[in-house]
Amino acid sequence: MSEITQPQGSFSGPLRIEEMPGEDRWILLEALTYVAKDGRIFTVPLGTVTDLASIPRFIWPLYHPAAPGYRKSAVVHDELYSRAELFSGDDHGHISRGAVDDLFHEMMGVEGFRPTGRRAVWLGVRSGGWLPWKRYRKAYVPPAPPTERDAA
Q: Fewer CB within 10 Å of terminal CB in the chain, N or C?
């Protein structure tokens, strides 16, 4: 595994995605890594399927999920919502929803999304993100602990 050498507060490169035919979903053609301003590293693996930003359709005229300015941020945010238990953090062994949403705000700033848009999108995830967060937590199955046979 190669060591991450990108600076804090940066993405690993452009977002390489391909739209899935007949769906409002995209698949990552290359892993995407974000190194937070505090040094934490978050990687979305190659092949991850995302809806980019989970924005209600009636808001799409203002904030379309595929609009530039927050696409990379949305992909990392989605990954963290779905797999929060895999990241260390301040909330009982996983990253908290509030921390994920605050990181989303940080990442949108790094992408150069306008401040008023960042605030509006952040408020949207803070007010409506609890439902998918709860759904992901309910569906999460922790990995099985290693057995003696695995050690052999």
A: N
Angstrom distance (rounded) from CA 87 to CA 33: 13
- Of 7, 85, 89, 12, nearest in space to 43 by CA: 12
Q: State the chain's maximal CA–CA distance in angstroms.
A: 57
Distances (CA, A) of 88 to 22, 50, 66, 78: 36, 22, 29, 17
Q: Is the dihedral of CA 75, 81, 86, 91 positive or negative?
A: positive
Q: Quote the CA–CA distance of 32 and 18 in Å, as a whole number.
A: 14
* Model confidence pLDDT, tens digit, residues 54-71: 777 777 778 777 777 889
pLDDT by residue (tens digit) across 25-55? 899 999 999 999 998 889 999 999 998 877 7
